[in-house]
Amino acid sequence: MSDNIECFDNPYEYLEWEYCRQKNKKVDFKKANIDTLFNLIKDKYDNVEFYEKDKNLFKKLKEIAINLNTPISEQDSAGYFILNRHSENIIKVANENNIFIPNGIILGTLPLNYLDAFTCVFPQDQRLIVLSEGLFLFLYSMGRVVSSFFSKINEDENKSYVTFDFNKDSINENLKTNKKGHNLFLEILILYFLYDDLSFSKIYYEEDVNINLSSVLWDTAELFIVAHEYSHIILGHLSAEKNFSKRFLDDNSMLYQVVRNWIEEFSADTLAFQLTMAKNQKSGYGLFSCYLGIEFLFACLDIIEKIYNVEFSETHPSAQMRIENLRQYFKSALPNKSQTIIDGTGVVREIMTTLWNINKDNFNYTVKYCFENINFKDIN
Prior knowledge:
disordered C terminus, disordered N terminus, globular, mainly alpha
């Protein structure tokens, strides 16, 4: 961090400043005219019925955003809603299990695509933890893509529950025939890594017909991420008294990543696993569904690491190492049930790996072409 940077005593003032510095150009959802907005994008929808349904949904979401008490006006309301909901659930589960969480923890999001959370400490023992808006959108999009390769076996008349086919032969057949799923996978990678903006994806203009499955994937993945950051705090990895190395977002930022040892990262994953599984089970999920989204999260992180060509770093072991550590913990905690669950949920990783192997050449070609022929500075 530069010695000349302005320092802030209040985490909310700082987050507001950081939003401005990141040149956040998003439309203020609370002030948006939904009818006008949807008229502008009407031609993107192929289904008129879903268009009207989506518009009505956004009107309801706007009401929620207006009533949501975001700390600062610049804070993305959708990102804050996700953080606040998961944070409340983690705190509740921790309290029920006599796990102490210090006061003064403030969560926020920024328009970043970084995998890791950033943090900084303020007076009065307040700690700001900032997560990436882009990562949450990536998980949501990939959850929809992955779920599209599962066939429905049956569903009740009210669609309150659905049974999906996890048979590998059926999924492998869908991987061969579902060309649309492959195209969306490639599109999401290009929009996320080249343009830092997933809002252009066609997936947002189509109804999620497998939402019963996709929501389990992305919701659990989000929950685990928030639980992981809380776990570092609970375990004392970020205590103000502890000496640790810092890697700042850039020279003009107060936000930094903590350079930890891998043992701390594994232990935070283990506690996050416990908190996530406890919350999901309380929500009525079976063990299989509870764990499914965790496998999905690390499959997504593995793809991101492949694209960045980073197997591991001094702050984090690889996604493959981390999920293997959790599998071993799961086996020790539930020796009679875990292996069957691990084997069954592993199909999520197989889908992601197959999608990457089939589409990586097209992705790499697109990246090369764009950087050789497009001046991204002019676009921005």
